[in-house]
Specification:
alpha/beta, DHBP synthase, Rossmann fold, 2 domains, ten-stranded mixed sheet, four-stranded parallel sheet, 18% strand
């Protein structure tokens, strides 16, 4: 049965750390999304993550650590990693590095690389510290939802997704960022952007003093990189603002109930309309909660206005594009 939602307290954190040491799973908040955590050094515990999520075994996880000392225990560190971690950790930045031999193969998706991050949420930091005090080295944690579905940004989202299968869920409130971490590959040649996220590409490039290249076919597999991901169960279409009324009318004429998320209220009637904000940070913060609300509306189709083709919107555009590909499909 589900362990349910547990309000944050020093006692709850200690209990959660004990759960992890014993090989059990714990859902916990980070500043990006809620993670489904396991002892990253325990292959059996990591395997429980894959089974619960329905995650493909070759889709790697991200290992969460307290600091750079903890990261060096898992990967071959580099000067560029040191510069980025010193500037942005704790925070929404994941670094892909060559793994050390003792790193758990399951957490790496069988690859010679590993993803590492130091989360900034005070509750995740406290949990990692308590886990470390018990001899733990790192917590592997993808998003705490069924694979391919909309990421959770509050404790209730985790319970909604996992139901009676949910482990202990530490409740740390709503996630501040609301989008997953930015992933930068430092394992091969020049640094490459593998996933846009809560930290801007421009900020990373300013610190490195060089541009991030785009991934090639040989780039490591990373979390959230599949074409279909972050997807609601209701079919979703991305439509330019000026085309929403025509598309809404066409769908309504076919007897379909349509929910719309756009900057301007449609002239045609729809089952539900929500106003989209013009700020990319605020939009990203509310993205997953809004997708879940639209998905619960009993609409036959979701129409979402495309976001500006600008660097500040890149992470949001990435998530919406993958959501549109996967929406309405059963989980992989």
């Amino acid at each position: 049965m589900s362990a349910g939602i547990t309000p944050a307290s020093p006692q709850a954190i200690e209990r959660a750390a004990d759960e992890l040491i014993q090989g059990n799973l714990v859902a916990f908040p980070t500043e990006t999304v809620y993670g489904l955590g396991a002892d990253a050094a325990d292959p059996l515990a990591v395997a429980r993550i894959y089974r619960l999520k329905g995650r493909p075994a070759d889709h790697p996880l991200i290992v969460h650590v307290l600091d750079t000392d903890g990261a060096r225990d898992w990967a071959h560190w580099s000067d560029q990693a040191e510069v980025l971690a010193k500037t942005f950790w704790p925070g929404p930045l994941t670094l892909i590095l060559k793994r050390r031999e003792q790193a758990c193969d399951a957490a790496c998706g069988g690859q010679p690389t590993i993803g590492l991050r130091a989360p900034a949420h005070p509750l995740s930091i406290a949990l990692l510290r308590a886990f470390h005090q018990r001899g733990g080295r790192g917590v592997a944690a993808p998003s705490a939802n069924r694979f391919g579905r909309v990421s959770p940004t509050c404790a209730q989202h985790v319970l909604d997704d996992l139901g009676d299968d949910a482990p202990m869920i530490l409740d740390g409130g709503a996630c501040e960022v609301g989008l997953e971490s930015t992933i930068v590959d430092l394992s091969r040649g020049g640094p490459a952007l593998l996933r846009p996220g809560g930290l801007s590409q421009a900020d990373i490039e300013d610190v490195l003093g060089q541009a991030l290249v785009q991934p090639d076919r040989a780039a490591p597999r990373v979390s959230g990189s599949l074409a279909a991901h972050y997807a609601p169960r209701t079919p979703l279409e991305l439509v330019r603002g000026e085309a929403i009324d025509a598309r809404l009318s066409a769908l309504s004429a076919r007897g379909m109930k349509v929910a719309v998320w756009s900057r301007r209220r449609p002239e045609s009637s729809c089952a539900l309309w929500r106003a989209a904000c013009a700020d990319p940070v605020e939009f990203g913060h509310s993205l997953y909660a809004r997708l879940r609300e639209l998905d619960r509306s009993a609409a036959d189709c979701l129409l979402i206005e495309t976001v500006p083709d600008e660097p500040d919107w890149r992470a949001v555009a990435d998530r919406l594009g993958r959501a549109a590909v996967g929406a309405g499909r059963p989980p992989s």
